[in-house]
């Protein structure tokens, strides 16, 4: 039996990095049998298909809009997982992971057991920000929920007293929080100071006789 523990999300957008931070804690603090893979899926989307196809049991960690108080941890199982991810998506990676599940099912290799462990975020629109304390506090409860779930399949996790090696050291949350600039040095929620730079001139769009195509680009409205 192959088991995949998969964290998805973007650590650069505050609480959206919850899933990745759960994986970081698992890699640092626990050892699992060889049939268990602990993976940071980030925002890879369809590139995760082969990993999902290879899993008999898939546990996904993510920030999910449950329309509940911030920091609420909730689990969704099996057929409800793709339906729920599509109901109220917060970012493009959720749509991407919906497609991953659909592709795996279409190709005939789909996990027999699927569990989503999600937390209700408090803040997403903070570029370069870290998890808010109320969300960070749910990392260990999410792991405890996972360990209990794995026992059903006869899988035991071994807690280790020292930090284990991360698959990618750059994801270390302590390093991330220490090295990022302060909000004063680099505002992370849209910086009005750019309008005060010498030589900057704000002008309305210019009309043109040429044919044009309007394109909407989602930059979270911060640029």
UniProtKB/TrEMBL annotation:
SUPFAM superfamilies: HybD-like. Pfam families: HycI. GO terms for biological process: protein processing. GO terms for molecular function: aspartic-type endopeptidase activity; enzyme activator activity; metal ion binding. Keywords: Aspartyl protease, Hydrolase, Metal-binding, Nickel, Protease. Ni(2+) binds at residues 16, 62, 93. InterPro entries: Pept_A31_hyd_express, Pept_HybD-like_dom_sf, Peptidase_A31. Belongs to the peptidase A31 family. This is Hydrogenase maturation protease. It comes from Methylobacter tundripaludum.
């Amino acid at each position: 039996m192959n088991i995949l523990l998969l964290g998805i999300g973007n650590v650069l957008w505050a609480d959206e990095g919850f899933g990745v931070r759960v994986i970081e804690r698992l890699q640092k603090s626990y050892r699992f049998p060889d049939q268990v893979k602990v993976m940071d899926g980030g925002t890879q989307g369809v590139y995760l298909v082969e990993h999902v196809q290879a899993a008999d049991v898939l546990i996904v960690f993510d920030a999910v809009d449950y329309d509940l108080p911030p920091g609420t941890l909730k689990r969704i199982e099996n057929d409800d997982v793709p339906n729920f991810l599509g109901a109220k998506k917060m970012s493009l990676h959720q749509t991407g992971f919906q497609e991953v599940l659909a592709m795996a099912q279409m190709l005939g290799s789909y996990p027999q057991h699927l569990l989503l462990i999600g937390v209700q975020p408090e803040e997403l629109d903070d570029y370069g920000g870290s998890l808010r304390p109320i969300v960070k506090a749910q990392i260990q409860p999410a792991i405890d929920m996972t360990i209990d779930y794995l026992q059903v399949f006869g899988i035991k996790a071994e807690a280790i007293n020292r930090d284990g090696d991360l698959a990618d050291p750059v994801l270390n949350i302590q390093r991330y929080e220490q090295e990022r600039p302060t909000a004063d040095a680099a505002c992370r929620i849209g910086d009005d100071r750019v309008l005060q730079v010498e030589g900057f001139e704000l002008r309305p769009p210019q009309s043109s006789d040429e044919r044009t195509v309007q394109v909407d680009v989602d930059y979270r409205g911060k640029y």
